[in-house]
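Review form for a predicted model. The reviewer records the input and the model, then writes brief findings.
Reviewer: anonymous (R2)
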Amino acid sequence: MSAHIHHHHAAEIPGDRSARNAYRISIALNAGFVILEVVVGYLFHSLGLVSDAGHKLIDVFSLVIALVGFRLASRENFQRVSASIALFNAVILLVAVGVIVAESISKFSHPDPVSGSAMSWTAGVGILVSGLSAILLMRHRKDINTRAAFLHMATDSLLSLGVVISGIIISRTGANVIDPVVSLVIAAVILFNTVRLLVEAVRTLFAKRQADASPATPAD
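Model under review:
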């Protein structure tokens, strides 16, 4: 799965109200689902769901940065602000990956009973959330920034489908070890996306600092 750092093309986001509403609804849906996954994952001891919630959090951060771009696209400080937000989010996500990996390793030694049906039903809701978000954004795919968000949401549906299948296997076989395996796979996806986000954020901040430090070219 490729990482999409939406703030890079914020100036190209169409400023019409329908596009803004599409982003707002997508943010609300995904933020609500993050809370749902964390709660269900905690109650039913599913680290896979909690890990997927961490991945969904990347979507929420990206969509928020893109929406902020509507207001800051014409301002000179937009790149610095969005890159700083992305850098802060990347640090939080790296910490989250560390926690997920540590918990996953612990679960291999002492696997807790996991409700496969709870995993499947919750991840099924995730497919609906990602799918609906993709449909909302699909209408505005002529914009490169929104097209990246659309592809990210569409790909997320496949990741949620993987969690659904894992839940079904656990329900049928009782192989609870699948849960930490799924969480490690998702942690790897989060790490890959987060590292790319971190690198691009640092690169953007560095380039902006160099541009600010460069003396203005005198007019002919």
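Findings: The two ends are 48 Å apart (CA to CA).
Further findings: Residues 22 and 36 are 21 Å apart (CA to CA).
Recommendation: see findings above.
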